[in-house]
């Protein structure tokens, strides 16, 4: 059974000769435009579903989704400066500082003097923070296991590889653009 045959009709790529994709322009590849629109629809739906799942699961542990991502980065990355953590989270420094402050108040993160730069601090997950992150990750992995159990091993491997490539490509584009808000060009 193909992966596409399990995809809801509302997010499948239109077949050749099917309806046109809005925004298609002259000189552009209509098949690529259709694929881009289909990818956008399916990723938007996946993000929406996962955002609700994450909020419902993670908030049961008295931390926000953003705090969970920060804790995950600190557990996985060891000691990080605030700037390094902000970059990993794609957040500005002041927002990241508020996230870290909340985690620090809850006893999941601590600040320490940077070993090489006395003016800077490094952030580390505490033992309690690492235990919480492991518990949340375990719950999430159990959910993923349930989802993946519906697919054979070859499809599971392909999904992981493809999604990994999408993440790498999207991350590279975001980093190349500086992660800044878009510039709106005046209409004229």
Describe the structure.
This protein has one domain (33-169): Arc Repressor Mutant, subunit A (Orthogonal Bundle). The protein contains 6 helices and 2 strands. The chain has helices at residues 30-58, 65-77, 82-89, 93-105, 127-148, 153-176, and strands at residues 109-113, 121-125. Strands 1-2 form a two-stranded antiparallel sheet. Helix 2 (65-77) packs across helix 4, helix 2 (65-77) packs across helix 5 (127-148) and helix 3 crosses helix 4 (93-105). The longest helix is centred in the N-terminal third of the chain and has 29 residues, at 30-58. The radius of gyration is 21 Å and the shape is globular. The relative contact order is 0.08. Residues 1-23 have low confidence and may be disordered.
Which features does this protein show?
188 residues, mainly alpha, Arc Repressor Mutant, subunit A, two-stranded antiparallel ribbon, 6 helices, 2 strands
């Amino acid at each position: 059974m193909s992966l596409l045959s399990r995809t809801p009709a509302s997010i499948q790529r239109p077949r050749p000769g099917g309806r046109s994709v809005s925004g298609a322009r002259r000189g552009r590849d209509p098949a690529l435009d259709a694929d881009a629109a289909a990818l956008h629809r399916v990723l938007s739906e996946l993000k929406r579903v996962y955002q609700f799942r994450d909020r419902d699961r993670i908030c049961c542990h008295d931390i926000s989704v953003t705090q969970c991502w920060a804790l995950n980065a600190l557990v996985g990355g060891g000691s990080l400066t605030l700037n390094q953590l902000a970059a990993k989270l794609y957040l500005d420094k002041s927002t990241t500082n508020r996230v870290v402050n909340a985690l620090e108040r809850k006893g999941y993160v601590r600040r320490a003097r940077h070993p090489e730069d006395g003016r800077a601090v490094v952030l580390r997950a505490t033992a309690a923070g690492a235990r919480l992150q492991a518990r949340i990750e375990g719950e999430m992995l159990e959910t993923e296991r349930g989802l993946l159990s519906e697919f054979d091993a070859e499809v599971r491997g392909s999904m992981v590889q493809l999604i990994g490539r999408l993440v790498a490509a999207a991350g590279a584009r975001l980093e190349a653009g500086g992660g800044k808000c878009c510039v709106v060009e005046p209409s004229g």
